[in-house]
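SEVERITY: medium
COMPONENT: batch folding queue
REPORTER: lab tech (J.R.)

DESCRIPTION
The queue accepted two submissions in a row. Attaching both inputs and their returned structure tokens so the on-call engineer can compare them side by side.

ATTACHMENT 1
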Amino acid sequence: MLADLLDDPNTDPEEIWGDEWACPKCYDGDSIWIDFDPEEQAEIERRLKGIEDGTVETIPWEDIKKEFNEGLTEEEVKKRDERVEKMLEEDMPKTRGILNFNK
């Protein structure tokens, strides 16, 4: 079942991550599964290793936010930032094991 619906069956459909799955019988608010094909999984593992050992360059979050903000009003940016901040505060502790490829 979609993990967001296990957290809250009334989740707005626009807020549901369509590739995050969990078992309804054993879901504990943590460990979810994400659908990756083997090539995507290998690429993600390669990039994570590169980040850990410093061989992969990363893009600063502020640069990414500038792209997200392009074409938005200040009010739209503020509203989105508040929503993201709330999501991070509420959901990040639950998703810390999200990239565990050994299961």
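ATTACHMENT 2
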Amino acid sequence: MSKAIEQALVLVPILKPKTIDPVVQRRNRILKSIKRQKQLVEMFKIGEKTHRAWFWMNEGGQILLHIKYGKVTLELSKGKFAVQCSSMDDVTHNLGVIETLICKGEFDAMLGKVSQDIRSKFSKI
């Protein structure tokens, strides 16, 4: 091996796994959905019609955001399902914060439970 390669790169003795870890699959799925929601926020800002947006304005004029895994709205804290946002820019910011938390693994237990609940509905009787 060339010394130039070893000096230019940080090399590690790890091969790419042949299968993807279910935890990583769940993270990737929800991160893809968050990216889509960020696009929907931008579409909403320029006045385009949005479909399946996680954000809405209630009758009091507050902008709210919920996070979904598939069709299931996640319970972010005991009895709390939505994030209050002050503006559409705040919706984008909060989606970014959630994205960071997902990457750090903070949602893994919640996603695992929701995923297990969804799968149990398809079990044979």
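NOTES FROM REPORTER
The helical segments are 3-8, 22-45, 88-103, 108-120.
No errors were logged for either attachment.
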